[in-house]
Amino acid sequence: MDDILSAIQSGDTDRALPYFASLSPDNRRQFLERVGSLKSHEAARCLTALYAKVEEKDLRKLIKKALFHLKTQGIQTEAPVAPGEPVLRKVAGTAKEQIAFTSNYDHEATRVLLIAFEVRRKQFIFTHATQRFGEGLVDMMSAPMDRQGLDGLIRDYRSRTRGPMVLVDISPSYAMYLMEEAARQSGRQAEEIKGLKRLTADFTGDIRAPSDIYRLKAPETVAEIPWQEVVDETVFGPFNLPWKDREGDRKEYDAIAHPQIVLPPHVIAEKRAIYLKGLVASEKMKPLRQSFSRMLEDYAYLFFRQSRYAHFAALLKALGSAESLDAVIQVFLAKSIDQESEKKQQQQSGLIVSPYSRNP
Asked: CA 189, 194, 198, 201 torsion: positive or negative?
């Protein structure tokens, strides 16, 4: 057997075919396993050639499994053709189905990324990943499933996605980019991502990377709206901006926004704006600024996929201006801090009543 395996490695598959035919069923299985362990393009060619000669379903299944394993190792393989199968069917089968979805961020600053792609007729690989804002990939798992199982799973995801959460279909190639980006950021599951990339190298879609979002075009007839209107959308509602030392910043902000002495509302508003502007410009906020910009790009793309072109265009315009981007970040900083400050305010007693406030 070893000399046949050596011949295969050298590119000579002709000797393997008659040798395989002479083996007993048990030895055939052993031989196929040995060929699959060679991890080379020559081994893949040999397995594909043997598949055309095999009639036993269990052996064909074993060959397919070996070819799939070789493909995950980055080895080029050809789709095997069953005995008597017309070539037209093989060619038609090269156009594999690909689907992908992502959600907006929830109240824990996490979102889901879903990818499914066809590896053979009505057989899919499904991958679910969870990403946390500013941290990257939290977890990822993949599983094979048939068409019926995949359809049922997607229906389940959709039924469990209720407002203000959304689940939007996106470019499969961009979904793969998002998973890889999240893995780099967290430093997790690098090998799993590497294997998945090999299987999804032929993914397509309207965009492949964040830079492509800026090349998408909204219809010229779309009316312009300000970014302030967009960030009030419910899709942003669950998101509570996280950052390091938020509690320390909250205490400083609380002293300004909720002073123990009575100040006119416009004075408090001015002091709040000055504090938030300084916070955004601080050195510690640079990583958050990068993550926030990426989030806005992704939300702009979600709006585009939902045909909400005015919202898409407004976010891209805000991203194109450093001043506007700072202002958007300030809105989310204030929202996050205010939520915590209001909880603390409710727990306090004996506060001076402001004469500028109105009783209901």
From this structure: positive
